[in-house]
Write a structure and sequence with these properties.
Layout (H helix, E strand, L loop, with lengths): L3 H4 L3 H14 L5 H10 L8 H11 L4 H12 L4 E5 L3 H12 L3 E5 L5 H7 L2 E2 L3 H6 L4 E4 L6 H7 L10 E4 L5 H10 L5 E7 L14 E8 L4 H16 L3 E4 L2 H24 L10 H14 L3 H9 L4 H32 L2 H4 L22 H6 L10
Parallel strand pairs: 1-2, 1-4, 2-3, 4-5, 5-6, 7-8
Antiparallel strand pairs: 6-7
Helix pairs in contact: 2-3, 3-4, 5-11, 9-10, 12-13, 12-15
Bound molecules: NADP nicotinamide-adenine-dinucleotide phosphate.
NADP nicotinamide-adenine-dinucleotide phosphate (NAP) binds next to helix 6 and helix 14.
């Protein structure tokens, strides 16, 4: 019998993890259990003895995968690696941890103390993260950096059939990148939690969670793993919406992108909090606060990586032009009536232009638009 510590000092840690695997799989022979210890992450060791043990295992290449698969079907707890531990990654991590899942985190910046404070394990080297064989890699990076980040992951260090999930606010783009970059033995789930640290601050109850099972292997363990992941959001009360990525992008451009655009336009207006805020106005102030707390990268990503966004910008432009036309058309109408009175209707009377006060050059002084509009006498608002 080979002792673990004689092969690799780090194997002691691996042994603890594997002990759980072994306990969950009582049918494994003691000798086989011992072999499994050496296949558990991390696998940095290169001693001859270790290679011998690996060679024995090579005769049964699917055993280790099979044991792990069995573990997944038995446990609903997941080891979720969050890549991109910024605003949104941290927000999700809190709920994952509260529900008892293990969170590994990796990011471009160093978030080790934040991760530690919330009970996540931070890795400053993505190779180490992958060698810990998480069940799920959850991509929480900016839309703009997604492709670069995904291509920089050492996929060869992950367990075969690891589940890849993204949370990007656009969906066709990550789906295509995942399908292009990830080998076919990895599972792919594209999701969009339609809420964020502001709107989901107190609860996720009834907030929409969109997902598309893009590519999931048909083994029970893999189907179960996806369900376990989706259950996190179900348990929080999210409204689960299964929808294709392309359909999501069409709806999101007409709803979410418009919302963000209006929020950013209003932000530029520098709206003030007044002592006579109506409810409608309060809603606008909230909108500004919600959208401005998101990064500009996020907003730019919604525009650049959703093919439907440009059309929405154009529609918005046209709608504003049409509205201005309608408004100014009304003013024009009022002015005409004031200037020409009933002369246009009956044709009998003279234009009232002659009756208007004149300036020094003898040009008639027109009433200002505000004077004309005030003739409506309704205060101009509906109180909403
Ligand atoms: P974000 O600005 O979209 O993304 C910030 C994250 O991206 C950080 O983790 C950042 O890492 C990483 N990142 C940015 N540029 C990078 C680069 N060049 N290389 C490597 N990493 C890079 O803000 P976010 O709010 O955290 O959103 C993250 C993702 O969640 C986005 O895809 C977004 O669409 C999605 N999402 C956000 C919300 C929301 O309400 N915020 C809601 C639903 C979905 P560092 O911090 O380490 O620099």
């Amino acid at each position: 019998m080979i002792s673990i510590s004689s092969v690799n000092p780090t194997a002691a840690a691996a042994a603890a993890a594997t002990a759980a695997t072994s306990a969950a799989v009582p049918s494994i022979q003691p000798q086989r259990r011992q072999q499994l210890l050496f296949l558990s992450p991390p696998q940095h060791h290169h001693s001859r003895r270790c290679l011998t043990v690996r060679a024995i295992d090579a005769a049964q290449p699917y055993d280790y995968e099979a044991q792990l698969n069995q573990r997944f079907t038995q446990s609903t707890r997941l080891r979720i690696a969050i890549v991109g531990f910024g605003n949104f990654g941290q927000f999700l991590a809190k709920t994952f941890i509260r529900q008892g899942h293990t969170v590994y985190a990796f990011s471009r910046s160093n978030y080790s103390s934040i991760a530690q404070s919330m009970g996540a394990v931070y890795f400053s080297d993505v190779h180490d993260l992958c060698e810990n064989h998480p069940d799920v890699i959850l991509l929480c990076t900016s839309i703009l950096s997604t492709e670069q980040v995904l291509k920089s992951l050492p996929l060869q260090r992950l367990r075969r059939n690891t589940l890849f999930v993204d949370v990007l606010s656009v969906k066709e783009f990550p789906k295509n990148i995942f399908l292009q970059v990830l080998p076919t033995h990895f599972d792919i789930l594209c999701t969009h939690p339609m809420f964020g640290p502001e709107s989901g601050k107190y609860s996720w109850q009834d907030l929409p969670f969109v997902y598309d099972k893009v590519r999931i292997g048909d083994e029970d363990s893999r189907l179960k793993r996806v369900d376990n992941f989706l259950d996190i959001f179900k348990k929080e009360g999210c409204r689960m919406v299964e929808m294709s990525c392309s359909k999501h992008d069409r709806y999101a451009a007409g709803s979410q992108f418009i919302t963000h655009t209006m929020g950013r336009i209003l932000e530029k207006l520098e709206l003030e909090d007044t002592p006579i805020n109506t409810r409608g106005y309060e809603t606008l102030l909230d909108l500004v606060e919600n959208t401005s707390s998101d990064s500009f990268d996020l907003y730019y990503g919604l525009f650049m990586y959703n093919k439907n966004a440009m059309e929405q910008i154009e529609r918005l432009d046209l709608a504003f032009e049409a509205l201005k036309k309608e408004l100014f058309g009304h003013i024009h109408e009022v002015l005409r009536k004031q200037l020409f009175g009933k002369s246009e209707e009956g044709g009998a009377q003279k234009p009232i232009l002659a009756k208007l006060p004149k300036n020094n050059n003898g040009t008639p002084l027109l009433p200002s638009p505000s004077e004309s509009v005030s003739s409506r006498g309704d205060g101009g608002g509906n109180g909403r």
